[in-house]
Design goal:
By secondary structure, the protein is mainly beta. It has a single domain, classed as Neuraminidase, CATH 2.120.10.30. 0% of the residues lie in helices and 37% in strands. The strands form seven sheets. Strands 1-2-28-27-26 form a five-stranded mixed beta sheet, with no helix packed on it. Strands 3, 4, 5, 6 and 7 form a five-stranded antiparallel beta sheet that branches. β24 and β25 form a beta hairpin. It is globular, with a radius of gyration of 20 Å. The chain starts with a strand and ends with a strand.
Length: 415
């Protein structure tokens, strides 16, 4: 397929090669297992209003009919996360090196430019080695505040809030929401996103090291290896509020912020904007990558098994009680090494793709479409797009999708 370049006002693209969402084969040892726990329930997020459902016939998306190309938006270096702001035509992109950039779409098809001035520059406050850096961003539902997730100069996770005024983050308003010590340099997670319930979700890996040396994935007493669910509004002298219906609020010894656990490194999770279904791509270790799926209305508190299991394969034990097995696993054959989660396509420009979940692999650069029915995969096919080291995917306000790679930002369009 073809690649069409969108020329930005910054001129030539600066190419960098940065490893993110890595397979995590770094060292580390330890045998102290954390406490085991079964799953409790809470109210799941309600499905949001979304774009129309599948248009490719009554059966839904038709992956065999999908023909794609990529349009490059020039002027970005190491784009790693993308979001949009309510009632704002621009896109906002986090660069791994520490800058948030504003992308303005032009009047004609295939036109876009990147503002020369950064919306926010954190380049002197972050570490950028390996899987570290500015890793995630999102706006509050009213667009008044910008939230970022990054590893600071000590390598620890910081989730920070800024007021957003006059097209820029107000650095004087900086407020740290959450700080998490990271024992190793990898498996930092890094996604920060408002869910369909209007609450803030934060993805954290197990803290790094091979085989989850501190057993954080199955330890409900730590924030690591979890997806957290919080209200960023301060209360009771704290920087945020724990929603009272979180699944482990009343569990002794458990961190009440936990929404989901048993995760190695959730490198991007998303909700289907039409159905409210939750998709999680969890980076595996030596041989397997996994995608997890929770239909809308499922109880919160799901345990996805790491590190008792690596995907469906025993590691430190057997499948945990009531654990959730992935909807899909794939091997490292063919140059694969690290899954990158995407979105269910709900745009209008690629009708045959509408309703399919897109994801990719960092090393092979392959992009796949996946179709599920009743929680089971009914179709999965590679999509013929040029290969890139895939950092992330992005979704705009209209449900159109973007690919973020080591060498730039690309809009996914019909060929």
């Amino acid at each position: 397929m073809t690649v069409t370049r969108w020329r930005g006002r910054l001129g030539a693209l600066v190419v960098t090669t940065i490893m993110v969402a890595a397979c995590g084969n770094s060292g580390g040892a330890g045998d102290a297992a954390g406490p085991q726990s079964s799953i409790t329930s809470s109210t799941a997020p309600a499905p949001p209003l979304g774009n129309p459902g599948p248009a490719a016939g009554e059966g839904g998306p038709d992956l065999s009919a999908v023909d794609l190309r990529l349009e490059e938006i020039d002027g970005l270096s190491g784009p790693i996360a993308l979001t949009f702001r309510p009632d704002d035509d621009a896109l906002y992109v986090a660069e791994k090196r520490g800058q948030v950039r504003r992308v303005v779409r032009g009047q004609g098809a295939g036109e876009a430019s990147v503002d020369a001035a950064a919306v926010l520059d954190l380049s002197d406050q972050i570490s950028t080695g390996g899987e570290q850096g500015l890793l995630g961003l999102d706006f509050s539902p009213d667009g008044a505040r910008l939230y970022v997730d990054y590893t600071d100069t000590a390598g620890d996770t910081q989730v920070v809030e800024y007021a957003f005024r006059d097209g820029r983050a107000d650095v004087a308003s900086r407020r740290v929401i959450l700080s998490v010590d990271q024992p190793y340099a990898n498996h930092n997670g890094g996604q920060v996103v408002f869910g369909p319930d209007g609450l803030l979700y934060v993805g954290l890996g197990d803290g790094g090291g091979r085989n989850d040396p501190n057993r954080n994935g199955q330890n409900l007493g730590t924030l690591l290896g979890k997806i957290l669910r919080i209200d960023p509004t301060p209360s009771d002298g704290k920087t945020y509020t724990v929603p009272p219906d979180n699944p482990f609020v009343d569990r002794p010894g458990a961190v009440p912020e936990t929404f989901a656990w048993g995760l190695r490194n959730p490198w991007r999770f998303s909700w289907d904007r039409l159905t409210g279904d939750l998709w999680i791509a969890d980076v595996g270790q030596d041989e397997w990558e996994e995608i997890d799926f929770r239909p809308s209305g499922s109880p919160a508190g799901a345990n996805f098994g790491w590190s008792l299991m690596d995907s469906t394969h025993p590691l430190h034990g057997t499948n945990p009680p009531e654990g959730i097995l992935p909807i899909l696993e794939y091997t490292h054959d063919g140059g694969n090494c690290s899954v990158t989660g995407g979105y269910v396509y709900r745009g209008t420009r690629i009708p045959a793709l509408r309703g399919a979940y897109l994801y990719g692999d960092y090393c092979s650069g392959e992009v796949w479409g996946l179709v599920q029915a009743d929680g089971k995969v009914v179709d999965r096919q590679p999509l013929d797009v040029p290969s890139h080291q895939i950092y992330s995917f992005g979704e705009d306000a209209s449900g159109e999708l973007y690919l973020l790679a080591d060498d730039g930002l690309y809009r996914i369009v019909v060929a």
